Every structure is written in structure tokens, then in C-alpha cells.
Amino acid sequence: MRILVTGGDGQLGTCLKIASENSPNKYIFTDADYIDITDKEAVDLGVGCNNFDIIVNCAAYTNVDRAEEQPEIAERINAEAAGFLAGAARKNGCTLIQISTDYVFGGNEGNTPRREDDSVKPTGVYGLSKLHGEQAIEKSGCKYLIIRTAWLYSEFGKNFVKTILELTATRPELKVVFDQVGSPTYARDLANAIVDIIDNHKYEGNEGIYHYSDEGVCSWYDFTQEIAHLAGNTSCHIEPCRSCEFPSAAVRPSYSVLDKAKFKRTFGISIPYWKTSLKACIKNLTES
Ligand SMILES: NC(=O)c1ccc[n+]([C@@H]2O[C@H](COP(=O)([O-])OP(=O)(O)OC[C@H]3O[C@@H](n4cnc5c(N)ncnc54)[C@H](OP(=O)(O)O)[C@@H]3O)[C@@H](O)[C@H]2O)c1
Hints:
The protein is of the alpha/beta class. It has nine helices and twelve strands. A six-stranded parallel β-sheet has the order 2-1-3-4-5-10, with helices on both faces. A two-stranded parallel ribbon has the order 6-9.
């Protein structure tokens, strides 16, 4: 099989490169220089001439706060371009695997893990643009899997774990919010799951929306404590605070936990506990 991965130089794209290293299938990674997904002609040509079986779309506008000032750009990349990929997938008989987000929910309703068919209500431009991307794919008539994930981190790119490692190593104290909870997700765990779904043909006959995060739940404060503890950064005092002390351009969901029962039932993949995966990531980061 031939698999196109867009956004191949991003955090998840890089993890997919590692996860697919020993695959019998041919994974081809592209960045915006090779296929700018907002360029319909480039997408049609790139997909149409290369005989792909599957497209994994990891390309996205991911700066949640900046998106509030750049709604047109966020919409073009996260929604319109997802529609271009879906159109090309339909025309060429490929399956599109789209990565989406917990931010399609938002709001503060309840504290029950979100199921795939729960009602969506994004509170910011980023979440809304990703939701529009999902809707464009659903409308397109292509075969698709939409995987919503949350709180991604890894050794690659800019992410919360790398920022906290730096801050707790260099500052005497740090305030972190404890009123937003979710599930930290090692991007390499998600990448391994995606490769398993592709290489073992588990996507066949299983179209639809799925939720994936690592197991367990914590606040950003708990996450920070664990990062500092695992890295041995014990001299920084970490203080819990409320989100109102750190106003940001985008409103973030206070309860961002995804229910993964459908994912586990459908694909038979067991999901690691967040602390176990965090330990592996920090070991890689501190040893490199
Ligand atoms: N990070 C998280 O916490 C998180 C949480 C939930 C869901 N997600 C979703 O997970 C997916 C992967 O996220 P990530 O953390 O890997 O993001 P990332 O590191 O920001 O990677 C996104 C990639 O997309 C590329 N890109 C942007 N515009 C493009 C275009 N027009 N054409 C082609 N490529 C383009 C970027 O290239 P440049 O760097 O050159 O712009 C970058 O390499 C995204 O769909 C995101 O919405 C992420």
C-alpha cells in the first residue's frame, strides 16, 4: 500500500515517520513545500498522480491563540484544505485519516468523558475551524476516519513537556492552572496506533469518528508536577492557580477528557497510561 502523510515535518508527522520505519507499506511524507494542502491544484495533482491508498492528514494550523487573530488562515488550512484532501481522496478511491481535536467540544458542560456523538460546541476559532474540517470531510463522500486527540506532546516541535522541562530547570517558581483537566497524549503512542490501523487494515469497514488520547486524567498542574519530578527538576516551586490568572486569546475547555471506548473496541488497541508514556518521552529527551 502507498500512504501519503501531509504535515510530515510536524510533531505527529515526525512520530509517524518513526512508527512506520519497519512497515511493509510505503509511507510518503510531505510538507507545505511539496504539497501545500490549501492549494487545490497541488492536492489534486499530488494525490491523483501517485496511486495512494490512504492519506493521513497531519497538516494543520495549530496555534490556538494566534488563530483568534487569523481566523481566515485557520479556516483555510483546517477546514477548506481538509475538504480538498477529502475531494481528492473520493476521486481516487483513497481513505482519508484526518486528525482532529478535543477543542471541537469546549465549554464547561459537565465532567463526563466526551463520546464521539456528543454535541460539539467549540469556543474558539481553532476548534471551530477543525470542526468545519470534519464537516467538509463527512460531506465529501470519501471514505474517512476522523481521529480526535488532545494534549499532544513528544520529543519533537514545540510542546508543553519541552516548555515545562525548560522552565522548571531555570526558574525558582512557576504557576500552572489546575482548573483545566485532560489526558496528556504522547504523539508516538498515537502514531503507533495509526500505523497499526493502516498496516493491519483495521480501517476497512470502520469509517467514522474516533477519540484517542492516552489513558488517565490530570490537570495542567499535575502534568507539570510529574514532568518536573521525572526530570529531577526539584528546585522549582510549582504553584496551582486558576485560568483567570492567565488570560489567553482563546477560551480553552475546562474539561477536555475524551472517551476512548469506541477506539479500543473497534481497533483492539490497548492505550498506554499517560505517566508511563511521559516517563519514556522524558528519558528520550534527557538522554539525547
Ligand atoms: N498539538 C496538540 O496538542 C494537538 C491536540 C489535539 C489535536 N491536534 C491535531 O493533531 C494534528 C497534528 O498536530 P501537531 O501537534 O503535529 O501539529 P504541528 O506540529 O503544528 O504540525 C502541523 C504541520 O502542518 C504543517 N502545515 C501547516 N500548514 C500547511 C499547509 N498549508 N500545507 C501543508 N502543511 C502545512 C506545518 O508546517 P509548518 O510548520 O511549515 O507551518 C506543520 O509541519 C493536527 O491536526 C492538530 O490539529 C494537536
